[in-house]
Amino acid sequence: MTPPIHLCPRPAARLAARLAGSALAVLLAGCAAVGPDYVRPRMDIPPAYKESGPWKTARPQAIDSHQPWWLAYHDSILNGLMQQADRANQTIAQAEAQYRQARALADAARAGFWPSVGASAGVTRALTNSSGVKEGTYPTLGLSASWEPDLWGSVRRAVEAGNAGAQASADDLAAARLSIQAALAQDYLQLRVTDLLIGLYAVTTEAYTRALQLTQSQYAVGVALRSDVALAESQLKTAQAQGVDLQAQRSQLEHAIAILIGKAPADFALPAEKLTAQQLGARLPAIPTGLPSDLLERRPDIAGAERRVAQANANIGVAKAAYFPSLILSASGGDSSTGFATLFDTPSRVWSLGAALAQTLFDGGLRKAHSAQAVAAYDASVAQYKQTVLNGLQQVEDNLALLRVLDHEVVLQDQAVQASQLAERLALAQYRAGTATYLSVVTAQTLSLANQRSAVQLRGRQLAASVALITATGGGWDGRTAAGPPMASTPARAIADATSSTSESQKPTP
After folding, report:
1. Which of 66, 175, 224, 444 sits between 20 and 30 A of 374, alpha carbons compared?
2. Residue 89 CB: number of other CB atoms within 10 A?
3. For 59-84, what is each residue's pLDDT tens digit?
């Protein structure tokens, strides 16, 4: 380290100091940050999805996990549950805290632009023998400052990395909120499907009870066989057992919803809702419009992965800056005296200015290893980003295909329900007339119940696939934005143009 330079307060010295400062400012202004400037990774995106749909040209949108996409299901209870989950879900609270932590780390990196300033004060009691034995009190008071100019852009790259990390954390928060919203919607809609099935089994057990009473009456007058009574009783008990099992499924779904909205299961209850399969199916929203690039503009996990690529790119510059020398400027001043009475006298004042230039000559390959590590981390983040994009495209295609197939399957299943219900009525009429055995009645009733249950479950699968499609497309149907400050990054940073390679140094803070 270069020793401090003590200067005399003469005009020439002050002029020299000003000139030196001006030259240093010019030097700093001319320095560029080392390391590669960020270029968004390129992806070859298809112009349309494989599955057909009413697509339109994509427009960049804000990645906003507060967008109320669940309003498309027209359910006021679901709306209220979503609000409770946003306020009290602990996974969202954890992601929000991690976002604040990432913002703090970015602020910490930004502090490197500024000098550090300190103050000191002390009192020393000492015995000296320089001019006779003398004991005295020696007070000191001082200020000091040091600054390492960002000659090679190390701090700038660290700030760039910190900002990108904070933005990625904001996207993680949006992804966590969207995930909780999707899970809540899935569980709630499945609970309503279970309510419909419970109602179906309640009606079915009533019909089976009447059928059992009919066979018992006919057996009492010698028209029916004892086996007919046994068949009717077995069918009734089977339906009752399946109905009880549905109650267990409903309880589990209710408990899951309670946890998602931040409540203990004992403190939450959701009343049953009576509705038909057609009413349940009417809640299915229309397929959203868009293009594959629109997916990349709105999915928070893709946006977060892209921000981590930018963060890794900036870290390469931080590692490269270690190859260059560092300059440290320091200054100090204060008072040091043999007593409190003379502490602030002019002879007691001391000050100094200093500069130190340091360069590592040999480190055993440490800097080279750090640079290689940063480059490898960047390559890994690019691969992760591209894989996240591909996974997103697959999820959209999967759910589009599922919805397309289910639309056709529901129509066929409804026709099967109508046919089996007709067969059930005819078999029961024939049995009353004595022209058919009760086995044919049981067969027709079992088929009718199975078809009705399948019809309800198919509508439940449609609703589940629609929620999955909303999640896969970033949580937005129609671009409406809910009230309240956005918690996710803006705007459309994943890929606004699938083939763009425009450079950007950093993304605006959310």
Report:
1. 175
2. 21
3. 444 445 567 889 889 899 999 999 99
